[in-house]
Amino acid sequence: MARITGPKWGPRDGGAPKMIVFLLHGLGADGNDLIDLAPSWGNTVPDAVFLAPHAPEPYDDAPIGRQWFSLTDRSAPARLAGAQVARPALDAMIDEACATYGLPASAVVLMGFSQGAMMALYTGLRRAEPVAGIMAYSGMLIGAETLAEEVVSRPPVLLVHGEVDEVVPAAASRQAESALRAAGVPVESTFSPRLGHGIDDASLSIGALFLQRAAAGIPGA
């Protein structure tokens, strides 16, 4: 079973968490890349603990960094095979966190950036125990062509993408939006005109509102 390694933050006020927010990093980074988002979002959901796990594999192209799966081959079949292999590790991390904090999966939000967004979408839509929401920043929907047949749960999804993203084109999130709607998944999306492959202040504010709504649906949060 994959265990959670990586930084954590919160809850802001020091009490027992009522919500778990996973921050899933992109290719070649590690959990330290996203944990700095936690203090800002923690002001919106003060009862949340933020977990930024290191992905299970060492990065192919450098002596430092991690990856959820290899992107040496960037073809659609290779991405799908990689997500299929990586999914059990993320599922195990979610289950471990729920057991640690005594919370159900319905108290979990999966947030991911780039490859982390791909994993959040792929895993979150196929869990028998639905999570509270999925936030996908600068990502894409792997396995879109079979989603309608494979989707198990339909948590609300937020897609955020920069229009001038030079790594993952914004068209990927537009395609994801169409496929999610076709599969009956509630989705909202925002495309930032001057944003590249990153997260800006406006994106953070949009995420904060999404987390606030997700928390409103969690008993006691």
Automatic annotation (TrEMBL):
Q: Which domain of life is it from?
A: Bacteria
What keywords tag this UniProt record? Hydrolase
Under InterPro entries, the record lists: AB_hydrolase_fold, LYPA1-2/EST-like, PLipase/COase/thioEstase
Query: Does the keyword section mention Chaperone?
Result: no
Q: Which residues form the Phospholipase/carboxylesterase/thioesterase domain?
A: 17-211
Would you identify the family this protein belongs to, as annotated?
Answer: Belongs to the AB hydrolase superfamily. AB hydrolase 2 family.
What name appears for this protein in its UniProt entry? Answer: Prolyl oligopeptidase family serine peptidase
Q: Which organism is it from?
A: Pseudoroseomonas ludipueritiae
